[in-house]
Amino acid sequence: MKDDQQRTIYLKDYGPSDYLIDAAGFDIALHATQTRVTSTLTMRPNPAAGKKPAVLKLNAENLQVESIHIDGALVSPTVYQIDAAWLTIHEPPSSPFVLTIVSVCDPQSNKALSGLYVSRGIYCT
């Protein structure tokens, strides 16, 4: 996140999450310049959120997505949007589902000391 975009977030700014994650799995194929990460999330709408969410928003800072699947079906790029900070999936399922995201990153070039990066030859996160 750029310095001019940073703002303080307070506890009072939070509410119940729109979705609950019941299980998370990650398959990581390490490579200095092109690490492939497959994230598999078993998710469901949160009844405590009090409304049917219109979108699913996930942090996507520096995310290079190769593919997105919901319940094994490839999601068309017209159904989601990626910007500098967020991955937004429009009209996600209203019942439990499995979200699989395949992305790539470049740990060697990551100098932000967040996410996956290499420091003195050691992969860090």
Order of helices and strands: EEEEEEEEEE
Helices and strands: which structural class?
A: mainly beta
Largest sheet: 5 strands, antiparallel
The value of Rg in angstroms is 16 Å
Mean pLDDT: 91
Topology-level CATH name: Immunoglobulin-like
Distance between the termini: 17 Å
| Cα shape | globular
Tally of DSSP helical segments:
0
- Poorly predicted runs: none
**Total strand count, please?**
10
CATH superfamily membership:
tricorn interacting facor f3 domain
CATH architecture: Sandwich
At the first level of CATH, the class is Mainly Beta
**Strand line-up across the major sheet:** 1-2-8-4-5
Helix content: under 10%
Strand content: over 45%
Explain what this protein looks like in three dimensions.
This protein starts with 18 loop residues before the first strand and ends with a strand. The chain has strands at residues 19-29, 35-45, 55-59, 64-70, 73-74, 80-82, 86-90, 97-105, 117-119, 122-124. It has a single domain, classed as tricorn interacting facor f3 domain (Immunoglobulin-like, Sandwich), CATH 2.60.40.1730. A 5-stranded antiparallel β-sheet has the order 1-2-8-4-5, with no helix packed on it. It has a 3-stranded antiparallel β-sheet with strand order 3-7-6, with no helix packed on it. A two-stranded antiparallel ribbon has the order 9-10. By secondary structure, it is mainly beta. The model has no long low-confidence stretch (mean pLDDT 91). It contains no helices and 10 strands.
